[in-house]
Amino acid sequence: MKVLTINSGSSSVKYQFIDTDTKQSLCKGLIERIGISGTNLTHKRHDGIKTKASDNITDHESTIEQILKILVNPKYGVISDLKEIDAVGHRLVHAGEKFKHSVLIDEEVREELYECIEYAPLHNPANIKGIEASLDKLPGTPNVGVFDTTFHVNMPDYAYMYGIPYNYYKNHSIRRYGFHGTSHYYVSHRAAEILGEDIKSLKIITCHLGNGSSIAAVKGSVSVDTSMGFTPLEGLLMGTRCGDIDPGVIFTIAGKENFTIDQANNFFNKQCGVQGISGLTNDMREIEAEAENGNYRALLALKVFSYRLKKYIAAYIGVMNGVDVIVFTGGIGENSDVVRNMTLGNMDALGIKLDVKKNKTTRSSETTISAGDSPVKVMVIPANEELVIAMETSRIVMGKE
Ligand code: AMP
Predict the structure, then answer these.
(1) Alpha carbon 220 to chain centroid distance?
(2) Where are the domains of the chain?
(3) What is the pTM of this model?
C-alpha cells in the first residue's frame, strides 16, 4: 500500500510518501513558514533528486495542494496519478481519553476530533487543518488519524493521576497522557530488533530529544511511564518549554506580569526552556557552541537539560527495577555527543558506561555507543515516526486488528 503521511503543525507541514509493503520512503518534504513571509517547500525523492518551491502557499489548503502537485510532477514526483495514493495517515497530537487507538476518519470521528481541541489548543487545530485539506483534495481516499498519545494508553493509573481532586479526572479527563508515542514506539521496537531480542523481555528507556523532548519507560513493550503529561509542557527541559515546574512559579510570574491565562500558557510554552535560561536561542547546536566559547548561561542551559534527563533516567530505572537498553533519538538525541555524555557520564554505578569514541563520532545512524563491558546497552536510533504512521494507516485501512 502507498501511504502519504502528513504531520501538520501551525506553520509547517512535513510529508512523506511510503510504500508500506517494502517500508521504503519514496519521497519526503517539508513546508515551512506557512502564512508567514518566505514560505518554502523542500522536496526530496528517494534517489536524491531535490527541488524547492515557494509559490502559492498561503494556508494548509494550498500546502496540501502543492504536496499533491509535486507527487505527480513528471520530474520530481513518484506517481503519475493521485489515485495511486491508497491512503493518507495524519499525525494527531492529543486524543484525550476519546481515542485510545488509531482511527479511520469518518464524519463522526471528524466531529469528535474538534472536541479534542481543548486538550492541545496549540497543536490539535493545525493537525485538523491538515485533515480537512486532505479530505477536500483527495475525496474518496481513506484518511487515518494516528495519535501521539496512543503508545502510552496502558500507563498504570498511579502513573497518570495528578494530585488533584478525583472529580477533575472523572469529569474533565485531567490526567497525564504522554506524547511522542510513535517515536517511543518505533525506537523501542527497533532497538529490540537490532539486538535480536524479544521486546517483551526487555526494559528500555527511550529518550526523544528534539525541540520538544520526552522520555519513556518501556517495560515488556508497554510504556509504563513518560515525562510529558496532560500537555506536552511537563517533564524535561525543552527548546522553549519549561518542563517540570512548581505551579507556584506560574502564579507568581503571571501575577508580576499581569498575564491572562492565554499569555501565561504562551510564556511557559514559548519563552522558557533552553532559550529562556540562555537568553539566546532554542537551538541546541548554537547553545553548545556558545557554551564552548565560555558563555555561562548557555552552559547552564546545557547542564539543566542534561541533569534533568539524568534524573528521569535514574527514576525510570527505579520504576522498572532495572534497564537493559537506553535509546537516544530526535535531533539532539541523535546528534549531540555532548548531551549524551553529560547525561550518562558518572552513571556507572547503575551499569551505564559509554564508549567515549563511539559516542563522539555517532551522528544520526543506528549505533550502539555503550562500552563493550557496559551492563546497560546505549543506542542511537534515528526517529522514524512517519513509518509508524504509514504502517498504522495501512493496518487500519486493511481492517486488521
Ligand atoms: P528536532 O525537533 O528533533 O528536529 O530537533 C531539533 C533540535 O536538534 C535543535 O535544538 C537542534 O539544534 C538539535 N540538533 C540538531 N543537530 C544537532 C547537533 N549536531 N548537535 C546538537 N544539537 C543538534
Answers:
(1) 21
(2) 2-147, 190-380
(3) 0.94
Check pocket membership of 332 for ligand 1, CB cut-off 6 A: yes
Cα 93 to chain centroid, rounded: 9
DSSP state of 174: -
401 residues of the chain, pLDDT tens digit each: 999 999 988 788 999 999 999 999 999 999 988 877 778 899 999 999 999 987 778 888 889 999 999 999 999 999 999 999 999 999 998 888 889 899 999 989 988 888 888 787 777 888 898 999 999 999 999 999 999 999 999 999 999 999 999 999 999 999 999 999 999 999 999 999 999 999 999 999 999 999 999 999 999 999 999 999 999 999 999 999 999 999 999 999 999 999 999 999 999 999 999 999 999 999 999 999 999 999 999 999 999 999 999 999 999 999 999 999 999 999 999 999 999 999 999 999 999 999 999 999 988 899 999 999 999 999 999 999 999 999 999 999 999 76
Which of 91, 144, 151, 93 minimizes the C-alpha distance to 118?
93
> DSSP letter string over 65-113?
HHHHHHHT-TTT-S-SSGGG--EEEEEES--TTT-SS-EE--HHHHHHH
User: CA separation (Å) from 58 to 11, 69, 137, 183, 208?
Assistant: 10, 15, 16, 30, 31
Q: Which residues are the active-site residues? A: 148
Q: If DSSP codes are grouped into helix, strand and coil, which group holds residue 188?
A: helix
Q: Which CATH architecture has domain 190-380?
A: 2-Layer Sandwich (3.30)
CB atoms near residue 321 (< 10 Å): 8
Domain 2-147 and domain 190-380, same fold? Reply is yes
Which residue from 179, 183, 223 is spatially nearest to 202, judged by alpha carbons? 223
Mutate to test the pocket of ligand 1, among 30, 32, 207, 211 (most ligand atoms within 8 A of CB): 211
Find all residues with CB under 8 Å of 116, minimum gap 6, and list them.
Answer: 92, 94, 95, 96, 98, 99, 124
Taking domain 2-147, whether its CATH number is 1.20.1260.10 is answered by no
Determine the residue of 182, 207, 332, 384 to mutate for testing ligand 1's pocket, defined as the one with the most ligand atoms within 8 A of the Cβ atom.
332
Measured in Å, residue 209 CA sits from the centre of ligand 1 at: 8
